[in-house]
Each structure stands twice: as C-alpha cells, then as structure tokens.
C-alpha cells in the first residue's frame, strides 16, 4: 500500500516535496493560487522555514555583491517589506490597542462569547510591517509541481470517496476509469468540508461545525481613498462596528476589501452599490467551532491515526502560515 496526499495546493505540494514516499491525488495543481482572483494578502513571509524551502528549490540569498557575481546563475531571493496600518475611529496608526485586536479578531471571524483569546497573527502581534519574499504562491506552486511531475508523483483526477476504516480510495484519473487504491497513510490538504464529503458522501456536516462565508471585493482604489492613510500602508485593519469590512489590501490602482459573513457583505453591497466593484465568494468560509466531534483527526487531535490534515482550510485554522506548513512537512506528520 502507498501513501497519498489529497489536494494539489501549496500545502500538498510542499508536503510531497519533503516526503518522497507520498504521491498527490488532485484535480487541480496549485489550489487557490490558480483561481485568477486575488484573495487578500498571500505573502511568503520571511522566516527560517520559508528561507529553507526557497534555498532547497535553488534560490540564493545574496548579501554581498561579489557573491552575486560569483554565483550569477543562481536565483536570488528578493525581499520586500509590506507596511501595516490600524484604522480606528477615523484615524490610521501604526499601533493597535488590546481592545482593537480583540474586536478585530471577533469581527473577522464572526465569533461570539466572553472567553475568546486572540491567537498570534500579524495583527495581534501589533506589527507595523511584514518581511516577505517576492515570489508568489502561484509561482512557488508551479516550481514545486514541476519537480514532482519529473518524479511522477502527481496524479491528476478526482477523488470520489475515501474509506477511512478500510484504507481505500476511489480515484478517477483524467485519462482512465475509476480505480480503487489501497493506502497506508493519507494527508488531506483539501478544504475540510470537501474531505468530509469524500469520507461521508451521504452525510451532512453536523452542528459541531459551523462557518461563515468570506467575501473578497476588488474595487477602484480611489473610491476608498479615505480609508487608506499613508501610501506606504499595504494592508489596513478595521475593527469599527460601523465598517462592514475587516481588512483592505492596497494595489496600484485597485484594492481588495475583505468581509466575513453574509450580514457584513450585505451592508457593504447596499452602502457602496453605486461604485464599480466585483466580488469573489469563498464558499468554504471561516471557522466558528471545533470539528473534533466529527471524528476525523487533526494534526494533534483524535481520530484514525493513519489520517492527517495539513493547511489552513484542511485544518480549518486561518492562522496557519506557509512557514508552519513547511515545518510540518520537514518534520513529518507521523
């Protein structure tokens, strides 16, 4: 029996790259990076693990000019800095109060309750900038896929059903008939609702798993200039209740406005209907509750020990960053 990864997005490609005994089953290489629609900030943050990944792929981090001259055929890792602002009651500052950080987290995740703890994120750490590498998610996914294709470890097609207990996968390749594959271990990187359906085609997600949809709105930057602050703000966070979005990403001529939940999106659509904008609806949404009760394991959770989840939508944890996926891949999930 073999080991498989379900899903060909960045998380699956990274895990396969560092774990040579795994093969990828996917109907689309690149995952979200191939949608052609900007889904908010998608940066490869500078971190020891992302630096390792890029170095392993052949990129070099040049410090001195003569190093570049001597190694002119190697690819340099180009670093950038993204500026961050915090909008509160009409003003944008470089700092966020504890109250702001809590209000933002509740608003952006559609959470309720009195015991909410804010996890470590760019916003909650009160950062004023992010160091990141120039390479995009789509480019990185393409480089990884190219290497894995040469090793013949990517199989294109559709996973019809996963039989967790029997360790079997019904898979229909693009160029053939449905076949049954036995597996020893499986890593799911597809959004959890999709994987749940693969395992339980006739079942519905129960009350232990709820989510709110996310909306990404592309608008003319000049229509929202009053919310931008200085020109060096690449991202601005919003916690005020009277503003329907929680973050704006700046572009050269456009901006990406993020809303969570149908109620917030409806407020935006009504208030700004006179402007020219278009929207992408991310159907997998945003986590509200734990899914441990569904008896499908998380990385450190309960459930069958031959199954693991990897990635922000598979683990249903929107705080997961690329560097954490790399770390998990390098370490291995078992």
Report on the structure:
The protein is α/β, with parallel strands linked by helices and 334 residues long. It folds into two domains: 2-77 and 134-205 and 289-331, FAD/NAD(P)-binding domain (3-Layer(bba) Sandwich); 81-130 and 211-287, no CATH class. Helices cover 23% and strands 31% of the residues. It has eight helices and 17 strands. It has helices at 10-18, 48-56, 65-70, 98-109, 137-150, 192-199, 262-271, 322-331; strands at 2-8, 22-29, 44-45, 59-60, 75-76, 79-88, 91-93, 129-133, 154-163, 168-173, 179-188, 211-220, 235-238, 247-250, 254-260, 277-287, 307-309. Strand 9 (154-163) and strand 10 (168-173) form a beta hairpin. Helix 1 (10-18) packs across helix 5 (137-150). The model is unreliable at 64-71, 291-295 and 297-301 (pLDDT under 50).
List the helices and strands and how they pair.
Blueprint: E1 2-8, H1 10-18, E2 22-29, E3 44-45, H2 48-56, E4 59-60, H3 65-70, E5 75-76, E6 79-88, E7 91-93, H4 98-109, E8 129-133, H5 137-150, E9 154-163, E10 168-173, E11 179-188, H6 192-199, E12 211-220, E13 235-238, E14 247-250, E15 254-260, H7 262-271, E16 277-287, E17 307-309, H8 322-331
Parallel strand pairs: 1-2, 1-11, 2-9, 4-5, 6-13, 11-17
Antiparallel strand pairs: 3-8, 6-7, 6-8, 9-10, 10-11, 12-15, 12-16, 13-14, 14-15
Helix pairs in contact: 1-5, 1-8, 2-8
Radius of gyration: 21 Å
In terms of quaternary structure, the protein is single chain
CATH homologous superfamily classification of the largest domain: FAD/NAD(P)-binding domain
Q: What is the annotated CATH architecture of the largest domain?
A: 3-Layer(bba) Sandwich
Number of domains: 2
Assign an overall shape: globular
Q: Hey, roughly how much beta strand do the residues contain?
A: 25-35%
Please give the share of residues in helix: 10-25%
CATH class assignment of the largest domain? Alpha Beta
Would you tell me the overall average pLDDT? Answer: 85
Q: Count helical runs.
A: 8
């Amino acid at each position: 029996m073999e080991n498989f990864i379900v899903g060909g997005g960045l998380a699956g490609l990274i895990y396969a790259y560092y774990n040579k005994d795994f093969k990828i089953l996917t109907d689309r290489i690149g995952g979200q990076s191939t949608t052609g629609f900007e889904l908010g900030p998608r940066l490869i943050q500078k971190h020891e693990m992302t630096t390792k990944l890029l170095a392993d792929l052949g990129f070099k981090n040049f410090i001195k000019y003569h190093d570049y001259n001597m190694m002119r055929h190697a690819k340099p890792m180009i670093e950038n800095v993204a500026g961050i602002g915090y909008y509160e009651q009409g003003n944008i500052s470089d700092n966020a109060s504890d109250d702001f950080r809590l209000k933002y987290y509740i608003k952006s995740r559609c959470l309720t309750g009195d015991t909410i703890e804010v996890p470590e994120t760019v916003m909650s750490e009160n950062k004023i900038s992010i160091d990141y590498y120039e390479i995009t998610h789509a480019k990185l996914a393409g480089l990884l896929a190219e290497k894995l294709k040469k090793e013949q470890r990517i199989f294109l097609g559709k996973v019809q059903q996963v039989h967790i207990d029997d360790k079997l996968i019904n898979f229909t390749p693009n160029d053939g008939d449905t076949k049954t594959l036995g597996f020893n271990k499986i890593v799911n990187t597809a959004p959890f609702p999709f994987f749940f359906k693969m395992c339980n085609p006739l079942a519905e997600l129960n009350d232990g798993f709820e989510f709110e949809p996310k909306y990404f709105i592309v608008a003319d930057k000049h229509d929202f200039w009053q919310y931008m602050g200085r020109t060096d703000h690449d991202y601005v966070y919003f916690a005020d209740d009277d503003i329907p979005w929680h973050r704006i990403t700046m572009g050269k001529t456009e901006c990406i406005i993020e809303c969570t939940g149908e109620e917030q999106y409806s407020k935006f659509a009504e208030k700004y209907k006179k402007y020219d904008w278009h929207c992408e609806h991310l159907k997998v949404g945003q986590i509200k509750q734990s899914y441990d009760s569904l008896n499908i394991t998380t990385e450190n959770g309960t459930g069958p020990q031959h199954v693991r989840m990897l990635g922000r939508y598979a683990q249903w944890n929107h705080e997961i960053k690329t560097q954490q996926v790399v770390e998990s891949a390098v370490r291995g999930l078992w």
